[in-house]
């Protein structure tokens, strides 16, 4: 999703005006003496860069949102010793399941 930076520094959705903002970025580059095309602007956005759309305004940028990193779900279980541990840390003791701290006490 395309975002536009506002005067207060916040970023807002600009997806509905994507083509307009890309053209503004091309025009802005021309004012700085750079020759770029719309494909170059799209490549910069895809690379995670912020692209200026209005010369001489500190806040006049667009950028793409970056997808949130996937969060690994940590699966936990309650052992027979009463402690909650990650599933891969559960140990089988002679009197039931145990966490690593209680394993020696529960294995007799």
Characteristic key phrases:
single chain, about 110 residues, 4-stranded antiparallel beta sheet, two-stranded antiparallel sheet, 3 helices, 8 strands
Tell me the Rg in angstroms. Answer: 27 Å
On the 0 to 100 scale, the average pLDDT is 89
Distance between the termini: 60 Å
Look at the helices and sheets and give the structural class: alpha+beta
Helix content: 25-40%
Number of helices: 3
Whole-number count of domains: 2
Strand coverage percent? 15-25%
What gross morphology would you assign? rod-shaped
Strand arrangement, major sheet: 2-1-4-3
The biggest beta sheet reads:
4 strands, antiparallel
Unreliable sequence segments: none
Question: Can you count the beta strands?
Answer: 8
Order of helices and strands: EEHHEEEEEEH
Can you give me a brief rundown of this structure?
The protein has helices at residues 18-31, 38-46, 103-106; strands at 2-5, 11-13, 51-52, 61-64, 76-78, 84-86, 91-93, 96-98. By secondary structure, the chain is α+β, with helices and mostly antiparallel strands.
What would your notes on this structure say?
The protein has 108 residues and is α+β, with helices and mostly antiparallel strands. The chain folds into two domains: 2-64; 76-106, no CATH class. It is built from three helices and eight strands, in the order E-E-H-H-E-E-E-E-E-E-H. The strands form three sheets. It has a four-stranded antiparallel sheet. A two-stranded antiparallel sheet has the order 5-6. It is rod-shaped and about 80 Å long. The relative contact order is 0.14. The model has no long low-confidence stretch (mean pLDDT 89).
